[in-house]
Specification:
The structure holds two protein chains of two kinds. Chain A is built from five helices and six strands. Chain A is an alpha+beta fold. Classes of the chains: A alpha+beta, B alpha/beta.
């Protein structure tokens, strides 16, 4: 799929030093549209939607907030910590407003799996189906999220 | 044949003309020359080279405006009033500015480029802000994810700050960051200690500054900091005091308590501190010592999920529940809170319910 000028501009916004020091693409050489397309295929193969994945991430984030910065147990077998970081962040897709900079860590105590993500990760996935480029600090493989958070597929 | 030659000549002519045009554009566009920054109605006038952000231009002249994001437009701290020469508010500033602030000509100094002369209003307290060269003298684990960092000021060798304020730490380029960045952290030392500073810094997964502090910084290293900043500090009243914190929110509260102890400010003080289990609890000895030295101070730690091996006999539950249980509150109470927005919002609700006036609730929200 060909990358539109708008997508090119967004990919520029994702380079290191524009919105964040390290950017969102990592060392991924693919066009943004390819990154989106390939992760979209994976999510479809998992019989899920980006919204379903984002909903679960948001649910852990909301419930974890009750720990007021400390790890908190979430049934049936998760430990979740939400750490607040000063400031907000703009979305490189040029969405309006600012997104909080909370850092969320979810540990699956049954499998030993652990993922770390941010409020921006949830926004990226829900609104843009973007899991970040390979090598990006906060890159999350859809399969990994689904495995750690135990997201069940449709039908 | 002549037509071919003519076509080649025309193409060459166009190429030469384009090259000259590019050279002219390069030499003029983006070259704004020297610009004058008139600060506080002429009380200070600076001449700077145009083209940089206002934040950087002021920093280069030794005027430090608070910024926790290193000029990326993601913290909203570097607001200044630009009364002339600021041009239109940029889309990148809008999320941070209220309608009232826009009407009052408040701008984000990291987003505004200096392209012409400007008139600015800078709060007087920012002129007390300096950049300090320092040496790390001690790094100590307070918990599994919080370190205490002590630095000696070298140049300048002394600082004036109010207990509760924060500094910015400059992180050099390293593995996780290909550029220098600044991040803001509260001071935990007493403001009467003017030659050394202390911080309590919690590791945030993938955090540029916290990873640097936890994984790279060592005793003897040089570190650049600037400050002090912030309006979270002890008010000069006789009201009773309630302090509430969790995790590294301990830092400014500890600074305030040390200051009170040294100045023998004997106001009734209750300090509620929330942690998950014993391993997240720290500085119990320091608090115990303060309880002995301060006539009406009590430290009330609460564990939300103590482990069986903790043998915990203190308060159980979330800090909000413990606060609600113990708070006496009332009109004559001031509250000082430091922590996550979630914790602060939840605690404010409890404080208001218990009669603490809204205008006496002071907080340092990590937001």
């Amino acid at each position: 799929m060909k990358q539109s000028p708008k997508m090119k501009q967004i990919q520029e916004n994702m380079k290191p030093g524009v919105v964040t020091v390290n950017g969102f693409i990592g060392n991924d050489k693919r066009d943004l549209v390819q990154i989106l397309d390939q992760d979209n295929s994976i999510v479809r193969e998992l019989k899920l939607t980006h919204g379903m994945i984002a909903d679960k991430m948001q649910d852990f984030r909301d419930r974890g907030e009750a720990g007021l910065g400390e790890f908190i147990k979430i049934e049936p077998h998760f430990d979740v910590q939400v750490i607040s970081v000063r400031g907000g962040i703009r979305c490189p897709f040029e969405d309006k407003g600012l997104i909080q900079k909370d850092s969320i860590t979810v540990k699956n105590l049954k499998t030993g799996g652990e993922i770390n993500y941010t409020d921006l990760s949830i926004h990226f996935i829900r609104k843009h189906g973007f899991y970040q480029g390979i090598g990006s600090l906060y890159r999350l493989n859809p399969e990994r999220i689904v495995e750690v958070l135990e997201i069940e597929h449709r039908g | 044949m002549n037509e071919v030659l003519l076509a080649v000549l025309v193409c060459c002519g166009i190429a030469v003309a384009l090259t000259i045009l590019i050279l002219i554009v390069n030499a003029t566009v983006g070259n704004y020359g020297e610009c004058e920054l008139d600060i506080n109605d002429g009380s200070k006038k600076l001449t700077v080279e145009g083209g940089e952000s206002l934040l950087s231009s002021l920093n280069s002249q030794g005027i430090f405006i608070p910024s926790a994001c290193g000029g990326k437009g993601s913290c909203g701290l570097c607001k200044l009033k630009i009364t002339a020469g600021g041009k239109d508010v940029l889309p990148t500033e809008i999320p941070w500015l209220t309608k009232e602030e826009i009407a009052e000509q408040i701008r984000l100094s990291c987003q505004v480029k200096v392209k012409n002369d400007m008139k600015l209003e800078i709060p007087e307290e920012y002129f007390n802000v300096k950049e300090f060269s320092t040496i790390i003298t001690s790094i100590k684990d307070l918990t599994h994810d919080i370190k205490e960092i002590v630095i000696d000021l070298k140049k300048p060798s002394e600082i004036n700050f109010k207990a509760g304020q924060f500094m910015q730490i400059k992180v050099p380029k390293y593995e996780l960051s290909n550029e220098e960045v600044y991040r803001a952290y509260s001071l935990s030392s007493s403001s009467s200690e003017r030659k050394t500073l202390e911080f309590e810094i919690r590791l945030v997964p993938n955090g540029i500054c916290t990873s640097y502090v936890h994984q790279y910084l060592k005793e003897g290293d040089k570190l650049t900091v600037n400050g002090p900043y912030g309006d979270f500090y002890l008010q000069d009243t006789d009201s009773e005091i309630v302090c509430i914190a969790g995790g590294s929110g301990m830092a400014p509260i500890k600074s305030i308590l040390h200051y009170m102890n040294e100045k023998q400010i004997n106001r009734r003080t209750r300090y509620f501190f929330g942690a998950r289990s014993r391993k997240d609890l720290f500085l119990e000895d320091t608090m115990e010592k303060l309880e002995k030295e301060m006539p009406d101070f009590k430290f009330i730690p609460a564990l939300s999920s103590p482990e069986p091996e903790d043998n915990w006999i203190g308060e159980n539950g979330l800090i909000t529940d413990v606060l609600d249980k113990h708070l006496e509150g009332g009109n004559n109470t001031e509250a000082y809170l430091c922590g996550s927005p979630g914790m602060i919002n939840a605690c404010i609700e409890i404080l208001l319910k218990n009669g603490v006036p809204e205008d006496k609730i002071y907080y340092d929200k990590f937001a």
